Amino acid sequence: MPPRLFDGLVLPASADFHVHLRDGPMLEAVAPTVASGGVDAIFVMPNLVPPITTVEHALSYKKSIAKYTDAKLLMSLYLHPSITPDTIREAKQAGIYGVKSYPAGVTTNSASGVVDYEQFYPIFEAMQEVDLVLNLHGEAPPGKDITVLNAEEAFLPTLLDLHHRFPRLRIVLEHCTTAAAIEAVKKCGSNVVATITAHHLSIIVDDWAGDPINFCKPVAKLPSDRVALLQAATSGDPRFFLGTDSAPHPLRAKKGGAGPHECGKCAAGVFTQPYATQYVLQAFEDAVNKGIIEKERITASVLEGFLGGFGREFYRIEASGKKIRLSAREEKVRSKLAVGSAGADAASDVVIPFRRDSQIYSLEWLED
Amino acid sequence: MPPRLFDGLVLPASADFHVHLRDGPMLEAVAPTVASGGVDAIFVMPNLVPPITTVEHALSYKKSIAKYTDAKLLMSLYLHPSITPDTIREAKQAGIYGVKSYPAGVTTNSASGVVDYEQFYPIFEAMQEVDLVLNLHGEAPPGKDITVLNAEEAFLPTLLDLHHRFPRLRIVLEHCTTAAAIEAVKKCGSNVVATITAHHLSIIVDDWAGDPINFCKPVAKLPSDRVALLQAATSGDPRFFLGTDSAPHPLRAKKGGAGPHECGKCAAGVFTQPYATQYVLQAFEDAVNKGIIEKERITASVLEGFLGGFGREFYRIEASGKKIRLSAREEKVRSKLAVGSAGADAASDVVIPFRRDSQIYSLEWLED
């Protein structure tokens, strides 16, 4: 049995700056698990169907979520041609925290290798003025020689270009997965930060090759990329903090179809919400035990910063003061989460958590 | 509609120098499809459960296969510690064609980066003496910094080392997938050849990311690797010829479990047997239509060589003289193949062919 590094550790509640909660029965199933992951503040992604492109929609979604969790909710809009500078000002006044950009539908300027966001410059200008955060899904759109392996690296010139054009715009490079992305963020000013997921601290390409449960976008990459992510997450650099990108999908969608003769593309996304903090600690512990990073890097202030402090500072929110305690007593990741009131019978939907059935830290909330 | 390049083309029957036919009901379902792929000679892989490690087993397996296909059957043994130099001599006399090596269970000499086959040197010596072919699954075993992406390239020093130690041993680097592998084979003498699959001429990493049906080992790699494979296959270099590595799995195994709440690792393998010739031609046509290779490369002698002539020459077998004709009339890849007499009802097994439901050349056998 390898050493358990975090037994008895007490930490401020974590914050998770990139979550997908969905709506309907999936929201009902997933939102209550925010607390079990030791998290008391979440940045909620706006990619519902249809996506959230109005302040009204964001606020009504916020109300729906609040039925199921006490966590502080940082809401966002989906960058879309229907959004105007007025929408941005309205969003700021309504307490919206960010605007999420997906590169789908934008084109790459082949001369410069830069994704062409020109249509959105007036929006970015307004965001810069009112200080609303731009959340980037940093992958180049499909194109010649662009693959799931290099799409993130191919996007980095765009990150640098946007930072150069809008130097006061605060930007998050979401769920960064490569050593190259870490370096690019470091090259920018303090306005540019990056979230790192729990699962990208744990897995590499081999873990999702032939395993739909571990498949997500951006895909997990090489061992050297995982090392760079682990080093950034344990560096104490406030530009790198947790955003799990927890993305629940029904198992039937993960497997590309429910029926025994049905097959198709697997939904991309790893579900980490119920153990957000625990997965990060497990990833650090595994990395130390394998000799990938040194135990000495993982100080209390490094953990507190990566798991919430740095993100709260960036988004300018207060800590709740609540505390959590980890313990190494025998606990395993649950094998599945039932969706809908019908429970987990054969016909119902289930969501499979990351590292199902494996050993995990136990987490409890301390009394105020 | 992009141009159809091979309408009306008449070719000698193809030969497929790397097939998995399995046994039992799967053999019964798959073996008859050898003919529909325009193939009249196949090299049969020995990885049954248990694997074929005796001449007796190989010959009884050959009899089982012959019930379902008239194709010429080139049988092989599975490289295993139980095999002795006497086994090799017996195999040669019995008309066995090759010995297949899987690197599982062998170790890498960390100093040289070479897989340690030392225990098998007496076997290779005997194979060289009697002129039995060594068929290599060319991927380095798991290890630090070895991933599904670089396992083949990491194996290449082993290929060169084996060729150096046994210069008269005829070696096939099976299902090669990288530009680096093509270059390594070219560096060796004419004793070293490589098979290329139909699907690796078609797909890249993005095609199996999140798509279990396209997932195989070695995995399909980068666009530049696919270009190198297409160029090798259309070069007229007799060291590169078709071996489909057609690997049927029940759909439930491809999806990592049949039940609606069941999940696990997806079986690796792409099923191409029923359209072996057609898939190759489609890959060439697609590559020409996308400007990846020039139409002028694909001469009749290039096609005849890659699709059978070069492999027959290497294995020293005669062509049957049978001919096939391709036509561009409306035809689609079947959506599934039923396994077992029960047919394709919900409870039964099905195998999903590569590029199911997509346009494909129609193939007919010409009268003798």
From TrEMBL, chains A, B:
Superkingdom of the source species: Eukaryota
Entry keywords, A to Z: Hydrolase, Metal-binding, Pyrimidine biosynthesis, Zinc
Pathway info: Pyrimidine metabolism; UMP biosynthesis via de novo pathway; (S)-dihydroorotate from bicarbonate: step 3/3
Enzyme class, UniProt record, top EC level: hydrolase
A single MF term (Gene Ontology): dihydroorotase activity
Span of domain Amidohydrolase-related: 9-254
Protein name: dihydroorotase
Cofactor: Zn(2+)
Record family assignment: Belongs to the metallo-dependent hydrolases superfamily. DHOase family. Class II DHOase subfamily.
One cellular-component annotation, GO: cytoplasm
EC number of this enzyme: 3.5.2.3
GO biological process entries: 'de novo' pyrimidine nucleobase biosynthetic process; pyrimidine nucleotide biosynthetic process
Matches recorded under Pfam families: Amidohydro_1 (PF01979)
